[in-house]
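Please check what follows.
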Amino acid sequence: MLLSIQETAQQVTEGLEQTEKKEFSIINIILEGGVGGQIIIGLLFVLFIVAVYIYFERLMAIKSASKIDDNFMNQIKDHVSNGKIEAAQMLCASEKTPVAALIQKGISRIGKPLEDIHTAIENAGRLEIYKLEKNVSVLATISGAAPMIGFLGTVVGMIISIFEIANSGGNIDIKTLAGGLYTAMTTTVAGLVVGIVGYMAYNHLVVKTDKIIYKMEANSLEFFDLLNEPA
């Protein structure tokens, strides 16, 4: 009896030592998840890198597009009022911003009917907005697709666990289920993380873009007011 108790205690101690040897780390969890989980995690990691790159690239472009001299429209008014059309166009060309591009398009149409000028500025505005929103839709796609890919990993993990249970002959062991559970949980978490990052990045860029669009509209109206002033 005493020997049996000692052997049982020794087995428990060895089991505890083996349990303590396993370190909780993201890499270990991913490796335990099997090939299917690793492929899905790899795909989500690529989507994460793409989302981060697009976010910072667009953020820089939007920040550059929002820079404009506060005295820009006053200078345009002075040049147009004094008939210095070429000087006004050169000023717009030097700014290299969406607002300046719209005003330059309007200046190039001076002398034509206001409706034609308005149409030309609207068309130029659509082009500038398209440039600002370049690749932003990819972020929206990633924010929606990443959680779905994560849930796909969840389904794959559950299938693996059920398959292992079916092959265990009724002897259910948590170690047998561990691989499938790791795949299910890690892919779900990874998908949600990438989706949240993509969603927040997309909405932040949309807000920044809307501010520039507002500036474009405000300066366009100011330019039309200038054209409508009595000579």
